[in-house]
Write a structure and sequence with these properties.
seven-stranded mixed beta sheet; 15 strands; alpha/beta; Metallo-beta-lactamase, Chain A; about 25% helix
Length: about 240
């Protein structure tokens, strides 16, 4: 595992060369918020990193319910029973293994590593909606990779943790845009049309930093995001 830090955000990068999977710790004045729970064997490194930072990990926030973002959730909740778990109201269903679609949603099957029913025992403490605050983070709905995907903006710096709304490994791309060097996020995307809308929503936030589930963090990413949006628009049209 590799750790990188930008302002208040620590990136924990597992298997950086083979199949990079990231989760993030957001440092608050007296505590830490974990964004995503990486892989099933990641919990030890997550806890060790929190110990090195020297603050208690009190929140676990999930961008969406795919297996490489919730892998250590149950272990962490067992070891940190007082930590509150947050996920969007929509993706809470995916966390339970319910892949049904709402009437107003695009009727494309949900893809990716959705847990099977009854396999994740942790139940969220808080179901998130657009605009909710979690410490210094503000939640925004960014569906596309999954119907209930969310991103989180650190209001101190305007950095955004965007889950799989984008990837930066194998080339910067909006979710759903196939990257030959790392195709897996695109293969696991529910709707690239919705992902495109969410990418435009993210760029309107004028983020100072883009932090994603797969790949390195990018400072001042607006121009790079614009290019990725244009590339997906061209492929859809």
């Amino acid at each position: 595992m590799k750790v990188a830090k930008e302002d208040f955000i620590y990136q924990l990068n597992f298997y950086p060369t083979l199949f990079p999977v990231n989760c993030y710790m957001v440092e608050e004045e007296t505590e830490l918020t974990l964004v995503d729970a990486a892989l099933p064997n990641s919990y030890k490194s997550i806890l060790e990193t929190a110990q090195k930072i020297g603050k208690p990990l009190t929140r676990i926030v999930l961008t969406h319910a795919h297996g490489d973002h919730i892998g250590s959730l149950d272990k962490l909740k067992d070891m940190l029973p007082d930590a509150k778990v947050y996920i969007s109201k929509r993706d809470e269903r995916l966390l339970r293994g319910d892949q049904s679609l709402d009437e107003n949603e695009i009727k494309t099957p949900i893809k990716g590593g959705v847990p099977k029913p009854e396999t994740v025992k942790t139940r969220p403490d808080v179901l998130l909606h657009e605009g909710d605050r979690i410490g210094s983070l503000r939640a925004i709905n960014t569906p596309g990779h999954t119907p209930g995907s969310m991103s989180f903006i650190d209001e101190r710096t305007n950095a955004i943790i965007a889950g799989d709304a984008f990837q930066t490994h194998g080339g910067v791309a909006v979710s759903g845009q196939m990257q030959i060097l790392f195709p897996f996020p695109a293969m696991a995307t529910w709707s690239k049309e919705e992902a495109l809308k969410s990418a435009k929503k993210i760029i309107n936030q004028k983020p100072s930093l883009l932090a994603v589930g797969h790949g390195k963090m990018i400072k001042q990413p607006v121009n790079i995001i614009e290019h990725a949006i244009h590339k997906l628009e061209k492929s859809i049209s």
